[in-house]
Each structure stands twice: as structure tokens, then as C-alpha cells.
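== Sequence, C-alpha cells ==
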Amino acid sequence: MKRKKRLISILTNLLLIFLIMIVFSEITQVFAEEVSYPDRPITILGMFSPGGTVDTVARLLVDGLEKRLNVPVLIAPKPGAAGALSLNVLSQSVPDGYTLCTFITSIPSLLPNFQDVPWDPIEDFTYICQYVVSFETFSVRIDSPWKSIEDVIEYARKNPGKFKWGAASPRSATTTATKAMFAHYNVETTFIPFQGGIEVMTNLLGGHIDASVVSEWTSPVEAGEIRLLAHTGTGEIPEYPEVPSYDKLGYPYYAYSGMGIVGPKGMDEKVVEILEEAFEAETYTEHFIESVRKLGLALVFKGSEELTDFMRNDVENSKKTVEELF
């Protein structure tokens, strides 16, 4: 009887040890998963051409991110198709946190309303964070005869189709807002799309177009080369409060252009959390704050949850706006 009890006791202890080992193994595995990311280089696809504002802002973050995450962070430009090319590639990427993409919030919201895309703006992406809001300005050369939007409208009304303006994407919120503005006045202009804001500004300064609607305006305006007639959003540009917004001017549509980072659908929540924390910490460094101020941007950070909610609403609102305006 004693031997039987002893045997039962031994078996019970062995079972307990076995169970403890299983639990410890699970805990160890979970812990390992939490600390293993990242363990190799991260690639960030660039929505627009190198040298533009979206690219420049992302590169301002890279050095700090590499130190915080302890891995190389690479920018791989994928401009094209009005911003759709980079999102096409991203949507087919493995959701392991090693392929991300810069983006402007209006691009995934608006593109599906104008062209066929192989992705859904909400279901096929993981929105990680927004770090700044840009102000795209309607700008003309300093030697042009136009001192206000009203001057441009008067010229366009007298010269149908002769006023030429350019932007970095034919389907962005800023382009859509500007087309809506001209439609509001029932005037005909010629729109010319480019691959990036730098290319647009180069063509403006070179006299190939009459106006630009881009965020790459700070250096030319500081150099006295261009005049800002308006900006396509709402509120005031911190350094140029005298420049009116499309909203203030009473136009039917104005643009919100948040810049941030997006990943493919299905990313692990822990990976998203690690990335969000790293980007947020770097966003609030003195270097980044001062740099974006000089670029004429506003620092407005949104985490993954807040940004996802914003994008869901923006997709719905953009669809309604396009249906009403076009």
C-alpha cells in the first residue's frame, strides 16, 4: 500500500514537473517573440520620388529609428501610378514588419474612386502611424501677373485651357480639391501630372507650367522665386498665416494630407506596437521638430488605432465627395 502511494506521489510530481516545463516553454516562446523583432533590415517603400517632401521627412526619421530598433532602415523609392505602385507592392508583401511604406493619407482614400486598384484601402493594409501634416500650396512664379486666386480665375475665364498647373499625383486630395475649385468657378484649365513634387516645382520655375500644387515650396519661397496664393487644406500655415486656405476661401472641397507609415494587412500587434513607439519617440525629438518646421509642416502624431479610425472615416468621406463633385 505504501509502495502504491509512493508511486502515485512520484507520478504526480513528474506530471507537475512536465506541466511546469510546458508552461515555461510557452512563456519563453512568447517572450522570445516579443523581443525578436526586428532582427534584420527594415525596408520602407517610398510612395514618391527621392528628394520630395514625403521622402525627405521619412529620411529625417531613419537615423534615429536605426538606433532605436538596432537594425538598418532602408528607403526604397517606388514612385508611379499616382502613388498606387508602392501600395500595390506593399499589399503583396509578407506582413512580418520588414516591408513598410511611406504614404499620404489621401492617396489610399481617393485612388479607388478614380482607378482600379488590387487592394482595399482598409482591409488590405495595417496603418502604423502618422507623424506630420503637410500644407500643399497653390503657387506661381514671383514674376507672374497673378497676385491672388481671383486673378488666376479671371485669366482662366478669359483664356480657356491656357492656364497650366501641375501636381505630383492626378488623384491626390490636393489635386482633387484644386480641380473642384476650378469647377466651382466653371473655368477650364490644363492639368499636367508629374512623378513628384520636385519635378513639379522645377517645371514651374522653368516656365513650363503656370502654377504648382505641391508641398515642396519652402525653399523656393524663401529664395523669393515663387508666390503663395493659397493652400489646399484648412487652418493656417504656421510660418505663413497670411496665406488663405481653400476652406477659408469657401471652396467645395479641401484636402487633409497626413504623412505616415503603412504596412501590409495581417501584421502582428506586437510588431505594430514596437514600430509605433519607435516612430513616436523619434517624431518628438528636437531635430525632427525643428526640421519639419523648416519644411512648413505641422507635427500631428496619430498612433495605429487613431490613424486606422481616421482612415476608415476618410475613405467613406472621400467616396461621397467624389460622387458629389464628379
